[in-house]
Each structure stands twice: as structure tokens, then as C-alpha cells.
Amino acid sequence: MSKCSYDPRIVEGHALGMYHCPECGEMVVAGIDHPDYSAPMEIQEDYLEVCDPGDPSVGIQSATWKITGGFIFENEVDREEFREAIQQAFGLQAENPQVAFESEIQAENDMWDQAAPDDEYPVG
Ligand SMILES: [Zn+2]
Questions:
Q1: How far is the CA of 111 from the centre of ligand 1 (A)?
Q2: Which residues pair with 65 in a beta bridge?
């Protein structure tokens, strides 16, 4: 499957075999399937956070660890495997470690921003 929706097969009989796709600009051949030049979707995360809610009722403080340096995953399955491995590793340190990646933390912050616009807070 190609990401570009333009279908070179519809111009069968075109004078020239090869031409630039009018939609994405890649080289296509009239009468032949549009090639897929799109790279596989990588997932990039700048950092991740491991958060343990702790249990304040028995005196266990919550804790958060931030791991920076950047991560690249070939796909979501790889990212989930990594999340599980990190969770397992931190299970040696924490009761119930939760792993959140940058994109998830950003999304949560955005939701929070929308739920509580700045103008609801008194300024000054
Ligand atoms: Zn195209």
C-alpha cells in the first residue's frame, strides 16, 4: 500500500512512461502501481518518566525517575516491549512503577491546559 493517494494506473496510455506524480512529486510510471517511498513510521521519544505512586497511608513516599537521552522505536510494539522491560526493572525499586513516555506526558499536559485555561486563575 502506498501513502500517496494518486494512482498512476488511471493514466494508462500516457505518452511518457515515467513522470513526476502530481500529488507527491515522486517518480511514477504510467500504468504501474505507485511505489511506496515512505519510510516506516518511527516513534521518537525524548525522555520517559517512571512514576511510583507509593502508599502514603503506610509511609511509602511517591517517587519519579526521569530517563533522558532520547529513544527511537521502530513501532508501537517495540515501545510497549521497552515499557514492560523498564517497568520490570523498576519493579525492583518500586511497588507499582508506571512508565510514561514523552508523547504521553505531553498529551496529558495538553489535556490539562484545555481543561483549565489560564484565565480561570487570578493573575498577579
Ligand atoms: Zn504520489
A1: 35
A2: 50
Q: Is the dihedral of CA 90, 93, 98, 103 positive or negative?
A: negative
pLDDT digits (tens, 9 = 90+) for 53-66: 988 899 888 999 99
Nearest residue to 8 (alpha-carbon basis) of 29, 35, 37, 36: 29
CA dist 72 and 79 (Å) reads: 8
Element (H, E) at 81: helix 76-90
- Cα 77 to ligand 1 centre (Å): 28
Distance 1 CA to ligand 1 centre (A): 12
What is the 37 CA–ligand 1 centroid distance (Å)? Answer: 9
4 pLDDT tier (thresholds 50, 70, 90): confident
Q: From start to end of the chain, where are the E strands?
A: 18-20, 27-29, 43-52, 63-73, 98-101
Q: pTM above 0.70?
A: no
pLDDT value at residue 12: 59
